[in-house]
Specification:
By secondary structure, this protein is α/β, with parallel strands linked by helices. Helix content is 31%, strand content 16%.
Length: 192
Amino acid sequence: MLPYPPDGFTFRVGVTTLVDCGDAGWRNFKTFKEQVIDRSKTRVLSFLNIVGAGMSGGPFEQNIVDMDPKLAAMVARQYPQHIVGFKLAHYHGFDWTPTDRVLKAGELAGLPVIIDFGGSEPELPLKKLLLEKLRPGDIFTHAYAHVNGRTPIVDENGKVRDYVFEAQKKGIVFDVGHGGGSFLFEQAIPAG
């Protein structure tokens, strides 16, 4: 979770609004609001993590029991001016349950989801995520990554997979969402 207000980074580069992607979950959003949102001049919106403990790392993010769509939707309804959707990230099991739970939270609250997909061995099918699970307006983040446990959107011949274009036509949003290790030009350039 962001331990401090973002103002020292945002205003100097002309950013007035940012969206936090899953640092806080339904258990600790109130603390995140008090410590970050309420102390910021920058407008801070949030994709609430489906994991109640938020993006706490390691085993916390693998805890399916803490992925409660009803409680997540309830917290989103309590803070509609701050919570704009739900986040699923860093889950490593070969299991659609976390995806289904974040989608259920989105359905209950009428909000989109953003998914950082991957890490499963064997891989969960990206095609199924994009064409069968996600809804129009939902977001696939770190789209230009090529990480273990996830099919890249650009194949070994440098071509964007056909189902990626189908998903885009369906209304799935592809987000760069890049961090230290989740962006490769070999994925971004052919997809551009």
